[in-house]
Amino acid sequence: MRYGETGYNLEIDLTRGSIERVETDPKDTELYLGGLGTNAKILWDRVPADADPFSPDNILIFSTGLLCSTPAPGANRTIVATYSPQTKFMAYSMMGGLFAPELKFAGYDKLIFSGKSPNLVYIWINNDKVEIRDASHLKGKGAVETQELIKKELNEPDCQVAAIGLAGENRVFMASIEQGRSSASRLGVGAVMGDKGIKAVAVRGTKDINIARPTEFLQLCNEVLEYIKFREERPIPNVMTILQGLGSPQEMKHTDEKWHTENFMWGNARTRRKDFWNDEIEKKWEKTQLGARKRLISCYNCPMKCGAIISLPGMSTYMMKCFSKLTYTMAAYVEDLDFAFRIAQRATEYGVDGFSTPQTMAFAFELKEAGILTDKDFEGTSAYEACPTDNEGRFYWLLDRVARREGIGDILADGTYWAAQKIGKGSEAFAHNNIKKHEQLPLKLGMLNPVYFLMYCTGEKMNITQIEGQFPQSPFMTMEEKEEFISDWIQVPDEKFKQYVLDWEMRGEKSNPYYPTPEIATDIVDWQEMMHFVDDALGVCAGLSSFPLKPPYHIHNYPKFVAAATGIDMDEEKLTEVYRRNRNLVRAINVRRGLRRVDEKPPEDHWKKRFPELEEKLLDTYYKFKGWNNDGIPMKETLEGLGLGYVAEDFLQRGILTD
Ligand code: SF4
């Protein structure tokens, strides 16, 4: 009997129209756990290293995490993995909500799509019965609308549907996969789904998941719930509001946006508006937000309620969470929050990433102001009007063009990096906020922070908010504050992290950029990465683990969860080794696709003050710690020590490593 997992994947070849239920190897679960870990192993084994993201050889995996569908609070992530059309590297984008638990209750740990369907289809998984169904009647429908239409068509109000909108159908590089209470938005996973001809996946599951040691497991779950309550009653003092609690950033709950609106840049990461926030705006925005927000909602089996149902007159309802409340508003320089809720509804129906899309549109208008794009690029055709001149109107107009790949929208649909390559004429300088060809948070700071430097450079999730956590973002002002912070810091893997907090100063030699030192910065990044990699293998939401300070899940209780759920013999040392194996495998996949040190650079203007020598030293130290060579390539001994000898062999054969 398999515990914690179903032991089966569902494999669908869209070219042949075949459907197969395939038993998985329990040894792989021990080595890589589930979710991201086994996704990486499958990508490595099955997809040619040079496969184009839009070739039938590329695969698209919807994976549950190892703890999904168990009673572990917040274990609900779907880890969608494929090769990204935008970066060309491995994409793994997370989706919360209810999809992964439903899939596992239907009897599958993963859905693996290969090939391409000649016609638009949707997949209907009803426990053991699986069908590939015609979706021609859903062509062009919105991502949220499609979910409702499929539920009605199947007469299954309780099934979970993940769908793409028009942007995915048109292979827009920023296309997302939308699912009821969440979305897998980043790196173009929706474009790959559209390329494969899949409009939606609907799933209904009513089976059980076996737990190896249920009493012990439930006890652990109760401890997590108790700790969540404890933390809710005791917000962390002396840090900014959004860092005080647990969960995804509670943007639907909080209305105070002073920090974001004054510290994140407006436009395409261009303008900081230091005195933007005032009483009048606060009152106006609060009224708009509370008016639009019908109720707060949670993902499967989680008490945190990070999302909200949004409803405004004349619009169908949708779910919003996190920063999409601000990204369109700030990119368009619109000071009315109502615009954010309205345009986000349209963007959600199109199915696009709420970070990259507004950045790309702001980039286009910057190019127009600079004379690189001209009025001709924004004129009308027989099918549509010319671009309006007001800020709101022109953003709606361009969003429509991008999702439909019409006119200039066709070029912009590939994101700022690829659009700049096509447009030329100096537009490359305007695509200034990318790492590995991917748009980053519009945050520009003064002094280089060595921990963030390393995370930005080396992170392969490509999204800084999904790499950070655990360690404070800036030093505390006084020794009393530091001592208070470390007094109940049970999550640290080693006591040395407490000393790092005590030593870190606002000014002087123990301050940024020279403190944390490269060695200490590497330690901190390694811990943060570890927690993200473990979450992404177990399918636990980062909002309860790797993202906030002092979360309920940590390296000391995670091994117990894994052991009690699956019966696998697990302790901290072994879990750390699984993390290192998965981290190196993801890196190896990308190395095989060309990732090198030269790619690991934050945007030039990310910090005002840069330190080239120190930055090189930081990368050297991090690579050395990881057992990678100076080009960021895992070395033979490192790979072999982690049971990844097959990767070392492949690297030697390709000449990526020499013996
Ligand atoms: S913490 Fe928030 S985002 Fe995470 S599972 Fe819970 S409700 Fe969902």
What does this entry look like structurally?
The chain is α+β, with helices and mostly antiparallel strands and about 650 residues long. The chain contains 24 helices and 19 strands. Strand 16 and strand 17 form a beta hairpin. It is globular, with a radius of gyration of 24 Å. The mean pLDDT is about 95. The protein has a six-stranded mixed sheet with strand order 2-1-6-3-4-5, with helices on both faces. The longest helix is centred in the last third of the chain and has 21 residues. The structure holds iron/sulfur cluster. The site of iron/sulfur cluster has 14 residues, from loops.
What does the secondary structure layout of this molecule look like, with pairings?
Layout: E1 8-13, E2 18-23, H1 26-32, H2 35-46, E3 60-64, E4 78-83, E5 90-95, H3 99-105, E6 110-114, E7 121-126, E8 129-134, H4 143-154, E9 160-163, H5 166-169, E10 177-179, E11 182-184, H6 189-195, E12 198-204, H7 214-233, H8 258-263, H9 279-292, E13 293-297, E14 307-310, E15 318-321, H10 324-332, H11 337-350, H12 356-369, H13 391-404, H14 408-412, H15 415-423, E16 434-435, E17 438-439, E18 445-447, H16 450-458, H17 479-487, H18 496-503, H19 518-538, H20 558-566, H21 572-592, E19 607-609, H22 612-626, H23 636-641, H24 645-654
Parallel strand pairs: 1-6, 7-12, 18-19
Antiparallel strand pairs: 1-2, 3-4, 3-6, 4-5, 7-8, 9-12, 10-11, 13-14, 14-15, 16-17
Bound molecules: iron/sulfur cluster.
